[in-house]
Amino acid sequence: MKIVSRNEELLRDALSSIPQSSSRTSLSSCNKLIQFEDISAAAFKIQCGIQKTPCMYSRLSKQYGMDIYLKKEFLQYTGSVKERGVLYLLTSLPQDQQRKGVIVASDSNFSMAVAYHASELRIPVFVIMSTSTSPARVKMCREYGAMVISYGTTAKDSQTHARRLAQENGYLYLEEEDSAVYLSGLGTVGLEVYEQVPKLDAVIFPAGGHCGLLAGSAAALKHLNPHISVIGVESESFPVLQQSLKAGHPIEDQACSNHHFYGDVSGLCFGSNSLQLTGKLVDKVVAVREEDILISMLRLLEYERATIDAEGAIGLAALVAGKLPELKGKRVAIVICSGNLELHLLQQCIARALTLDNRVCRFALVLSDSPGDMAKLLEILAREEVRVLDIKQERAFVTSELFTVEVTCTVETRDKIHTAQLRNAILERYPTAAWTER
Question: Which residues of the chain carry a pLDDT beneath 70?
Fold first, then answer.
């Protein structure tokens, strides 16, 4: 498949400024600069091994005042967009290297994609994981078909061991980087979005340190239509991309590691190729708070029935936070790139998001220790149509009068307006009630 466009100047201008430097993966094509033809070739080569994920109109459109289309890359087999770059990377390896095998050292989406697609291609694949890796990730990686080895207590220990095994046995050590092959595979997302949503005004991508998806897709989109705005979103806690763009080179000494909640968006900026493409082709990079990401995850769960992790939800978070007012009334696509939220985090994220969204609240008040007063409180809660999540009573350690009880209630409301109505009703009947602020 090859898509022909008259707009080649912008992409060629960006590519001309990228220095040819060696990459961390020993592939012969690492020094080759990304071009649009590489992306269209990647799309043709991986079309049988990758899901062409839907880009669907979202019910969130009305809420945010624009036509929102969600590119659901979390529907890939391993739940991540990284499969696109990985599959093209693996199929581009020489046959003798495919026979020897590959090795990776992390529990990231990249490693999961390598484990699955290498097994499907009958390439021997080894994954080195630290002993602190969650058992669920280890189990999943083994089910994909990889030989998983637990080694070391830190990611650095695992990487050192993987490099040693690669050198001793002839395996190719892979880690996520910005070679032309990998970026071209990721850039196929831009091709699909352009094909699936006509008359696009903007496309929003996750950014952060691993900005290959943003860079590769920007190369495709700007080649096809330079008037489409390409926007990257990263976390305020880890503004790696913005700092790297400001410095003019990848930031390698920043004291941040892959935060368990944020995933790859908290990683170090990994390459000058993707950074230079981002600087030339991406129109805007914004940063969002953790609170906005959590609410974004809640919106996607409620409106799209999609369990999305922070990396996948960060694009929508820019709209939740009101960081892109210029998109009001426009047609916007958002790439939901990952859905690998671990189960032990799911409940915490939902509970915290409901609180941030003013839909779970807590208040405390003092009642006389008699059944009648508790019944009156419950009557108010029933009249206000709230859902009672928890009621705790404390009698022994109260500082008020004798024969009183301190009652702490946790309730769920419909929205912020409903919460305000409940608060007014409680304070009207119990003026000394203390509301717990989030």
Answer: 1-33, 252-260, 263-270, 437-438
Quick one: 324 and 304 in the same domain? yes
| Identity at 304, one-letter amino acid code | E
Predicted confidence (pLDDT) per residue in 193-211, tens digit: 999 999 999 999 999 778 8
User: Are 308 and 363 in the same domain?
Assistant: no
- Whole-number Å distance between alpha carbons of 54 and 104: 30
Residue in the block written with tokens 């199929």: 91
Whole-number CA gyration radius for the chain: 25
Domain of 416, in residue numbers: 359-436
Q: Are residues 271 and 388 in the same domain?
A: no
pTM > 0.85: yes
CA 130 to chain centre: 22
121 and 208 co-located in one domain: yes
Give tens-digit pLDDT for 378-425.
999 999 999 999 999 988 887 777 888 999 999 999 999 999 999 999
- Three-state SS string over the chain comes to CCCCCCCCHHHHHHHHCCCCCCCCCCCCCCCCCCCHHHHHHHHHHHCCCCCCCCEEECCCHHHHCCEEEEEEHHHCCCCECHHHHHHHHHHCCCHHHHHHCEEECCCCHHHHHHHHHHHHCCCCEEEEECCCCCHHHHHHHHHHCCEEEECCCCHHHHHHHHHHHHHHHCCEECCCCCCHHHHHHHHHHHHHHHHHCCCCCEEEEECCCCCHHHHHHHHHHHHHCCCCEEEEEEECCCCHHHHHHHHCCCCCCCCCCCCCCCHHHHCCCCCHHHHHHHHHHCCEEEEECHHHHHHHHHHHHHHHCCCCCHHHHHHHHHHHCCCCHHHCCCEEEEEECECCCCHHHHHHHHHHHHHHCCCEEEEEEEEECCHHHHHHHHHHHHHCCCEEEEEEEECCCCCCCCCEEEEEEEEECCCHHHHHHHHHHHHHHCCCCEEECC
In a domain, 7, yes or no: no
Q: Is the domain of 130 the same as that of 200?
A: yes
Q: How far is CA 50 from CA 45, 80, 89, 116, 264, in A?
A: 10, 11, 13, 12, 21
CATH number of the domain to which 205 belongs: 3.40.50.1100
**pLDDT, the chain, mean:** 88
